[in-house]
Design a protein that fits this description.
This protein is mostly helical. The protein has a domain of 66 residues. Helices cover 76% and strands 0% of the residues. It contains 15 helices and no strands. The longest helix is centred in the last third of the chain and has 30 residues. The two termini are 39 Å apart.
Length: 290
């Protein structure tokens, strides 16, 4: 069975060999890796992983083995498998930390963790990069990523201090606009007024939907207001017609909707006061820069 597997992989490699090299790829790259890169360009990420696995199986000591690990991590990441992507990058760094591929793997690992929403681990990885490679190829952007991570961890003052230090250290940086945008997002978050849950509750007691209006959620506020108003009218209509059953029936429904309006009004304030939108804005602004 093992012999058949070797033959199958060898035949696959031979079949791939005749493909002409694309100008986007290194002319001397192995054909299997060229094919993997084509798959990545075509967004066929798991086909790319398959080609890379073939290369690694056939050439466990190949000159491009570490480069193939970087490519595999990239393919997993672009295919939304963040766990496998970070695992591969960590393995590449640990195996090749004295090489350019190892440095690149550690940088990518930090960027991936930041982009996937793990700012604490991203910050630790970025700090390790800056300690191991103080003059590395990615030291400039890594310092800015550290500010991103601090902001995402709600250490706003330290993030702002880091941005100012970054701009002073790299006055001609090509990441200046990104740094200024990050600073602006942080300042907006720091200065953003918070809403009072008590005010939302008391206002909703008097006017259902007030809590939603209070936080700017006009659509839900109108829905809550008119639903409760309609049910109150049906209760009144049943009462004036002498139909106590109808009045009681809609009264029971109105009680449920009224309670729901109170709860969702207060919840709307809590959601408004959270850092969810701010956190997502910071995460989406991170560029992995493969």
């Amino acid at each position: 069975m093992r012999i058949l597997l070797h033959l199958l992989l060898a035949v696959t490699a031979i079949i791939v060999m005749p493909y002409p090299a694309n100008r986007a790829f290194a002319a001397d790259s192995h054909p299997l890796l060229q094919q993997a890169e084509r798959h990545i360009e075509n967004r066929q990420y798991y086909h790319a992983v398959t080609e890379i696995i073939r290369y690694q199986y056939l050439y466990p000591r190949g000159n491009e083995y570490y480069e193939s690990m970087l490519m595999m991590g990239k393919a997993y990441y672009l295919g939304d498998n963040y766990y496998q992507a970070t695992q591969v990058m960590a393995e590449c760094y640990n195996a090749a930390r004295d090489t350019g591929e190892g440095e690149k793997a550690l940088y990518f690992l930090g960027a991936m963790r930041l982009k996937s929403g793990s700012p604490f681990f991203a910050y630790r990885t970025i700090q390790e990069y800056m300690y191991i490679y103080p003059d590395g190829s990615y030291s400039e952007i890594s310092q800015l990523y550290a500010c991103h991570a601090l902001a995402m961890m709600n250490d706003q003052q330290k993030a702002l201090d880091g941005i100012h230090e970054f701009l002073e250290k790299y006055p001609q940086t090509r990441y200046r606009e990104e740094a200024l945008t990050l600073e602006k997002n942080i300042m907006e978050q720091v200065n953003r007024p918070r809403k009072s849950p008590l005010a939302a509750f008391l206002g909703s007691l008097v006017m259902p939907g007030f809590g939603h209006f209070y936080t700017g959620n006009i659509g839900m506020g109108l829905l809550s207001f008119f639903t409760n108003a309609g049910l109150i009218y049906l209760i009144y209509d049943g009462y004036t017609d002498g139909d106590m059953f109808r009045a009681a029936f809609f009264g029971f429904i109105e009680l449920s909707f009224y309670q729901y309006s109170l709860i969702t009004g207060v919840r709307s304030v809590h959601e408004y006061n959270t850092d969810k939108d701010y956190y997502n804005t910071l995460r989406m602004s991170v560029e992995t820069r493969f």
